[in-house]
Amino acid sequence: MRTLSIRRKLLDGSAPTTGTLAPVFQITSTKLDRHRDRILGIKAEGAELKKPLLWGHASWEPAIGKAHCFQEGGVWLMEPRCDGIGARSQEVEAKIKADTLDACSIGFIPVEGYDPVPNAEGGLDFPLVHLVEVSIVNVGANEDAVRVRSMGGPTGGGESPVMAAALASLATSQAALATVIAKMVAKEDEEEEAAPTSAPAEEKDVDDEAEEEAATEEMTPKAFAAALVAHAEAGKALADAFLATEAEDEELIALAEGLRDGLPTDIEAAKGWLARAEEEEAEPTDDAPESEEEAKDAPLPEEEAKAMRRLVRKTFGFTVAQAKALTVRDLRTYAALCPPAA
Predict the structure, then answer these.
(1) Fewest C-beta atoms under 10 Å: which of 156, 208, 320, 329?
(2) Do the beta carbons of residue 80 and residue 25 sit within 8 Å?
(3) Domain spans in the chain, listed from the N-terminal domain onward
């Protein structure tokens, strides 16, 4: 794909993640860690958090500085700022600059009302946590909690925050679009090869959960249109991010401008199709809940509840029994933490 080749070119021209510029670490992800646990969300009132910076979770020792945490594209990052007071702080700061220490780890406590849930891997899923501290460590529990780049300044290198978010969004949309297309092609092939058969109605009764799993494999026109729109918009965001860096490479500038200005009209048509489909699916209710809190506990239509349980199982690894045991409020909360379905 053209957008993929542009992305590769932009990546090839990025600055190295080591050097004299301020380092930036990713502090967590929803990936299963070495303890088989997952952090699904960090509670924050704003876009930034400042927490104690420790060495190896040594909470009994004075902090070695401050961890300046912030979000980019839904990812929590951190700039470690050692205060240079004491031998420990100076040593850790020097080893970070030398790229000897390139991993971190977080200390946290669950948010009240969001108790950890056992997952299918033998660990716990934490729906929402309070961040207590961030530690520089030799080896972190989460393999994504590592140094990802340097903090670029006005004249420095390093990948810009907007560019990093755009690249991540484009990669996600490319994978989602490829999956949708592959499934649609596979479904067409199966329909062409299958012999016409019609089983008696009494033989068509199958397990409810088996029907749910089969439904997740069906690629609808709506799923394809949504993935196509997301992919095009991610490519445009990538081009905008690159052009905002005031790059001087004329070839890359031309490619980025073409990507930015070349959003095809059929994408706009797909947007309109999606809007009409969503309007048709919307079911107006005359007895809406009186408050936002009541809305969280309002019953869900059975098909919507099934769809939410499928999404939660696929995203967080819950078993069928665990997903069915969730209250309506908890089901809505978990579904809201899931990435948008392609």
Answers:
(1) 208
(2) yes
(3) 18-151, 161-193+211-281, 294-337
For 30-40, how does the pLDDT look when each residue is reduced to its tens digit (9 = 90+)? Answer: 889 999 999 98
Amino acid at 100: T
CA–CA gap between residue 69 and residue 12 (Å, rounded): 27
Distance CA 137, CA 147 (A): 11
* Cβ-contact 148, 77 below 8 angstroms: yes
Tell me if the pTM is above 0.85: no
Based on the number of CB atoms within 10 Å of its own CB, is 132 exposed (0-12), middle (13-18) or buried (19 or more)?
Answer: middle
> Does the pLDDT of residue 5 top 60, yes or no?
no
Q: Which of 213, 238, 86, 94 is nearest to 163 (CA)?
A: 238
pLDDT tens, residue by residue, 144-155: 999 988 765 333
Half-sphere exposure of 323 (CA within 13 A, CB side): 20
The residue among 293 and 325 whose pLDDT is bigger is: 325
